[in-house]
Design a protein that fits this description.
Layout lengths: L5 H4 L12 H12 L6 E5 L6 H13 L13 H8 L5 E5 L6 H11 L9 E6 L6 H12 L5 E7 L7 H4 L3 E4 L5 H15 L5 H10 L4 H14 L7 H7 L5 H12 L3 H13 L4 H20 L4 H4 L3 H13 L2 H18 L5 H13 L11 H10 L5 H10 L2 E3 L16 E3 L4 H16 L4 H7 L1 E4 L5 E5 L2 H6 L4 H14 L5 E5 L6 H4 L13 H7 L1
Parallel strand pairs: 1-4, 1-5, 2-3, 3-4, 9-10
Antiparallel strand pairs: 6-7, 8-9
Helix pairs in contact: 3-4, 5-6, 8-9, 9-10, 9-11, 12-13, 12-16, 13-18, 14-16, 14-17, 17-18
Bound molecules: zinc ion.
C-alpha cells in the first residue's frame, strides 16, 4: 500500500474531530439536526484551517442515511462512497485551474440532473476567488436559485476578491487560525495513533512553526518522521529537519546587536547561512525570541506564555535582566518589518545584513537619526575639521540625552547617558529669545510656530519641527517661509538659516531630535541688556 500523507490519513471524518473551529461546527451540526441546511456556503480562512475538511464532512452529512447528532454516520452506503471519493454526489472543483466561463457552464449544465442516489449533489469549489469575472457572473443565477437537491460550498483564502453579488448569496463562515495548543493536542493524537515516540517539546515546536495551519503542522510532522524513521523524534532533530536555529544562536545575535558589534552579528548570520537554514524562518524565529525576551522582562509569571524549556528560560531571564525594554521593542519592530519584506525577496541574506548593520551603526540610519553619542564620536575622529565644534562642546554645556537603547551601554543599559553637544551661539540666542519672539509674531505665523519645536540639524542649522507635513511644507519655501525668514533675521540682527522638518507618526520628537527648548542656556547677551534698559 502506498504511503498516505498524514494530513490525508488524519483528515477528520466527522465534525467532532475538527479542531479549533467550534463556532462553525456547532452551527452546521444544528442545521443538519434541524434539517435546515442552506444551498450556498462560503468558507473563508487562511490555508490549512479546515475549510475543505469541513466541506467534505458537510457533504457527507447532508447525504448520510443516519446522521448521528448532526455528523455523518460513516457506515451507510453514501458515507462510504463519499469517503472513498467514488460518489457522483460530491463534485470537487479547483477554481485555480478551472476558472473560465466554460468551466462554470459545465457545472450549470450538470446541476439540472437530480442525483440518482442519495439526497444532494454538493459542489465544492476550492480557491473560488480565482474564478474570472465572467465565470462569477455565470455562476450567479444558479447560486441564487439552485434546484433543491443542489448545494454549493465555496472555499477561499482571499475573501476580499469575491464579488459582493456572490457574497450576498452565501452563508459565510470564517475559519480561525488554530492555536498552538489545539494543534499540539491533535499532533499528539496522531503520533500516538501511529505509535511514534515524539518528545513533547518537538511537537510544540512543530505546532508553533505551522502558524495556525493544521495541515501545515501535519506536513511538517510528516517530514520530521520521514527523516528520523524508526527513531524517537526529539526537539533537536526537529530543529535540524525544519532548518531551525537553536536558541543559543539568538542569544548571541541579540548580544551582538545590543553591543553594536556588527562583525559578530554578520559572522553569526554567515554561520546560519552555511548551515543551510531557511532565512525567512530564521528571522521569524528571532522575532519570536525577542517577543519572549520582552515577556520575561515584563513579568515573572510568563513561563506558560513563553513556552520554552527550563534551561532556555533561565538564560532568557538572564539576558532580559541586562536589556532595556525600549531596545527590545525597537528590535521587534525592525525585525517584524524585515520578516514581511524578506518573504518573497530573492536576496534574503543581503536584506538581513543591511538590517544588522543598520542596528549596529545607527548613524547610517536616517530614519532613526537620533544617536548623538555616535555622531559625536565620529566628530571627534575628525578632530581638526571640527575643532570649532569641539570648542563649543566644551563651553556650550548643553545636555542631550542619548536615544534610549540605540547607544545604551550593554552593561548598564537602563542608565541613559547625558552627553554634551555644541550649539552655535546664534542658535542658543534664538532659542532663549523664542518665547518673546512668539509674542511678537503676527497671526497666522504665531499660531503655527507655537506648535513647532526647535531643533538642531547635523550641520548645525536651525530646524523648525512641525508635527504636520502641510506646515513643514508651508514654511520650507514660498511666501510664508520668506515672512518667517525675515522675522528671525530681523530679530537676530543677522541672517539665520533654518530648515523645516515634519515629525513622522512613528517618531517622537524627544527620540528623533535635539530638543533645544529643553535646554536652559542662561545666556545674557548684550542685545538683551539693551532691551532690558
Ligand atoms: Zn452515513
Amino acid at each position: 500500500m502506498g504511503y498516505v500523507a498524514l494530513y490525508r490519513k488524519f483528515r477528520p471524518p466527522v465534525f467532532e474531530d475538527v479542531k479549533g473551529q467550534d463556532h462553525i461546527i456547532t452551527t452546521l451540526k444544528n442545521q443538519i439536526r434541524s434539517d435546515r441546511v442552506g444551498h450556498a456556503y462560503l468558507f473563508c480562512g487562511t490555508r490549512g484551517t479546515g475549510k475543505t475538511s469541513v466541506a467534505k464532512i458537510l457533504a457527507k452529512a447532508v447525504n448520510c442515511e443516519n446522521p448521528i447528532d448532526g455528523s455523518p454516520c460513516g457506515q451507510c452506503e453514501m458515507c462510504k462512497e463519499i469517503a472513498t471519493g467514488n460518489s457522483m454526489n460530491v463534485i470537487e472543483i479547483d477554481a485555480a485551474s478551472n476558472n473560465g466561463v466554460d468551466n462554470v457552464r459545465e457545472i450549470i449544465d450538470e446541476v439540472s440532473y437530480s442525483p440518482t442516489k442519495g439526497k444532494r449533489k454538493v459542489y465544492i469549489i476550492d480557491e473560488v476567488h480565482m474564478l474570472s469575472a465572467g465565470a462569477f457572473n455565470a455562476l450567479l443565477k444558479t447560486l441564487e436559485e439552485p434546484p433543491s437537491y443542489v448545494m454549493f460550498i465555496l472555499a477561499t483564502t482571499e475573501v476580499h476578491k469575491i464579488p459582493i453579488t456572490i457574497l450576498s448569496r452565501c452563508q459565510r463562515y470564517d475559519f480561525h487560525r488554530i492555536t498552538i495548543d489545539t494543534i499540539e493536542g491533535r499532533l499528539r493524537q496522531v503520533v500516538d495513533a501511529e505509535g511514534i515516540q515524539v518528545e513533547e517539546r518537538a511537537l510544540r515546536y512543530i505546532a508553533k512553526t505551522a502558524d495556525g495551519s493544521m495541515r501545515d503542522s501535519l506536513s511538517l510532522l510528516d517530514q520530521c518522521i520521514a527523516f528520523n524513521y524508526g527513531e524517537e523524534l526529539t526537539y533537536d532533530k526537529v530543529l535540524g529537519v525544519l532548518g531551525a536555529v537553536d536558541t543559543e544562536v539568538f542569544q548571541k545575535l541579540f548580544s551582538a546587536l545590543y553591543t553594536q558589534d556588527a562583525n559578530s552579528a554578520l559572522t553569526i548570520l554567515s554561520d546560519v547561512v552555511i548551515q543551510g537554514r531557511e532565512l525567512t524562518q530564521f528571522v521569524n524565529d528571532f522575532v519570536w525570541y525577542l517577543r519572549n525576551l520582552m515577556l520575561v522582562q515584563a513579568s515573572d509569571q510568563m513561563e506558560d506564555v513563553v513556552d520554552i524549556s527550563t534551561d532556555n528560560l533561565k538564560s532568557l531571564k538572564e539576558q532580559a535582566e541586562g536589556a532595556d525594554t525600549d531596545t527590545i521593542l525597537r528590535f521587534i519592530r525592525i525585525f517584524s518589518e524585515l520578516s514581511s519584506n524578506i518573504r518573497y525577496a530573492t536576496q534574503k541574506r543581503i536584506l538581513i545584513e543591511i538590517t544588522l548593520i543598520r542596528l549596529c551603526k545607527p548613524q547610517m540610519d536616517k530614519d532613526e537619526a537620533d544617536s548623538f553619542e555616535d555622531r559625536l564620536r565620529i566628530l571627534e575622529e575628525h578632530d581638526e575639521k571640527n575643532s570649532k565644534l569641539l570648542d563649543g562642546l566644551q563651553s556650550g554645556q548643553i545636555a542631550v540625552a542619548a536615544a534610549p537603547g540605540v547607544t545604551g551601554a550593554p552593561i548598564q543599559p537602563k542608565e541613559k547617558k547625558v552627553l554634551e553637544r555644541a550649539v552655535p551661539d546664534d542658535i542658543k540666542k534664538l532659542v532663549s529669545e523664542w518665547p518673546r519672539a512668539l509674542l511678537r509674531m503676527g497671526n497666522p505665523m504665531k499660531t503655527y510656530m507655537q506648535k513647532a519645536k526647535l531643533s538642531l540639524g547635523n550641520d548645525d542649522k536651525l530646524q523648525i519641527v512641525f508635527d504636520n507635513k502641510q506646515l513643514s511644507d508651508k514654511y520650507s519655501k514660498g511666501e510664508s517661509a520668506e515672512e518667517f525668514q525675515n522675522f528671525i533675521d530681523e530679530m537676530m540682527g543677522k541672517h539665520v538659516e533654518y530648515e523645516t522638518r515634519c515629525l513622522e507618526p512613528t517618531q517622537t520628537f524627544e527620540e528623533s531630535y535635539v530638543n533645544l527648548q529643553s535646554i536652559n542656556f542662561e545666556i545674557v547677551t548684550e542685545d538683551e541688556d539693551k532691551e532690558n534698559e
